[in-house]
Amino acid sequence: MMKRLDESLPNLRTMCSPKEAPTETGRPPSGPGCAELKTTTPSGIELSGATDEQVIQSLTLVLGSRPEAQTEHWIGKYGYDDRLKGYALTAPAGPEQMARARAIIEAACSPMSGVELVQELTKLRLAVVSNTHGKDLEGWMLIMIEELRDFPAAVVVQACKEWRRREKFLPGCAELREECHQHNRSRRALRRLVA
After folding, report:
1. Please, where are the H alpha helices in 78-152?
2. Which domain holds residue 172?
3. Are 179 and 156 in contact (CB under 8 A)?
4. Is residue 125 part of a domain?
5. Mind listing the pLDDT tens digit for each residue in 4-46?
6. Does residue 186 belong to any structural domain of this protein?
7. Is 37 domain-assigned?
8. Closest CA to 137 of 149, 123, 122, 152
9. pTM to 2 decimals?
10. Which end of the chain is more exposed for a tag (fewer CB within 10 A), N or C?
């Protein structure tokens, strides 16, 4: 019989500190002035779990024009690809618009709660072959939580989903962090744009 996650991994509950307790919106507040800002995309998806395209659509509504992607060609691990260098505004934006855009980015970059991170890592662990051969999987989970807790929620979800689809074995810490860094490139560029 399969145990529930909270029964099988009791030490992981300590990774969620009381200061991370979700608010009514399900997420901790992400900064000053964000409480009055709508934390969902126009289609009703919470910004912290929104895809990059949904975040860009929200920014487009606030800024009045779509941020234009600046890319460069490069040879990656899987062949030729376009890599994002940054974004540029196609029309000037006022200080109030930029402040609202910063609040959107901060909400979109809010990290996952510890419980959600455990759930996502558990899905990853169940979907791929474990190459730990008797090593402590709970220890692996604790290390991964510590290393991934600062990444935006949607970035971790996307990185884990792509790893499950592409790779056969459980990732090491550096491998999954690299995957998260790749998926976080767009949000870092958007953050630089509105800074």
Report:
1. 95-108, 114-127, 137-148
2. 28-194
3. no
4. yes
5. 444 444 444 444 333 343 333 334 444 433 333 445 665 556 7
6. yes
7. yes
8. 122
9. 0.71
10. N
